[in-house]
Amino acid sequence: MKRKLGLLVVIFSCFLFGCASEPPQIKYYLLPYQSLEQTTSNIQLEINVAEYLKQDSLVIENEQSELTFAHYHRWAEPLELLIHRYMSKQLLKQLTVPQRLDKTKLIIEIERLYGSVNGKVYLSGYWWIEKHQTDGIERHYFNFQQPQLEAGYRSFVDSTADLLTRLASQVNHELN
């Protein structure tokens, strides 16, 4: 009888300890905040992302080129909105003549944005300027990659911001 009671206590204790562990906490990420002084320039910017990026999970590519969506690491807002806000400020900071975008619309198509298990972050796609006249459209392609400074999702987000800053520099260089 004592053996059965002892076994029952052990099983019950294991059950209680198993239930006591907390599930992993979901973490939400934003791109780094950038302050910007008052400006009179008006940038018309449109950001489009690939369908697989239109969800809130951060995306990681494994060694077999399969994409994995992080269940516990998510964007705090839709990625298109985060990129739009970040790029608008970067362009206004970097453009030497911001008025060049006043009567034009900058369209950025992001086809690839993910981290990899080998510690790199990838950003690729193309952009073009849509003028109010019916000029031809010249696409400018970008394909950036950067190693993360350290392991982890926070470093992935920081590297993403660095790559978007490089994209803003590319746009600035073409427009000036």
Keywords summarizing the entry:
176 residues; Rossmann fold; seven-stranded mixed sheet; 32% strand
Detail the topology: elements first, then pairings:
Blueprint: H1 2-20, E1 27-29, E2 44-49, E3 57-61, E4 67-75, H2 79-94, E5 104-116, E6 120-131, E7 140-147, H3 153-175
Parallel strand pairs: 1-4, 2-5, 3-5
Antiparallel strand pairs: 3-4, 5-6, 6-7
Structure commentary:
The chain is of the alpha/beta class and 176 residues long. The protein has three helices and seven strands, in the order αββββαβββα. It has helices at 2-20, 79-94, 153-175; strands spanning 27-29, 44-49, 57-61, 67-75, 104-116, 120-131, 140-147. Strands 1, 2, 3, 4, 5, 6 and 7 form a seven-stranded mixed sheet that branches.
Quick structural gist:
With 176 residues, the chain is of the alpha/beta class. The chain has helices at 2-20, 79-94, 153-175; strands spanning 27-29, 44-49, 57-61, 67-75, 104-116, 120-131, 140-147.
Q: What is the gyration radius calculated from CA atoms? A: 23 Å
Global morphology: globular
Strand elements, count: 7
Residue ranges: pLDDT <50 for 5 or more in a row?
none
The CATH homologous superfamily is termed: ABC-type transport auxiliary lipoprotein component
Mean pLDDT: 84
User: What is the count of DSSP helices, taking H or I runs of 4+ residues?
Assistant: 3
Using the coordinates shown, work out and report the CATH topology.
Answer: Rossmann fold
Q: Structurally, how many domains make up the residues? A: 1
Helix content: 25-40%
The CATH C-level name is Alpha Beta
Overall SS class: alpha/beta
Which H/E pattern describes the elements? HEEEEHEEEH
Corresponding CATH architecture = 3-Layer(aba) Sandwich
Fraction in beta strands: 25-35%
Report the span from N to C terminus: 87 Å
Query: How is the biggest beta sheet arranged?
Result: 7 strands, mixed
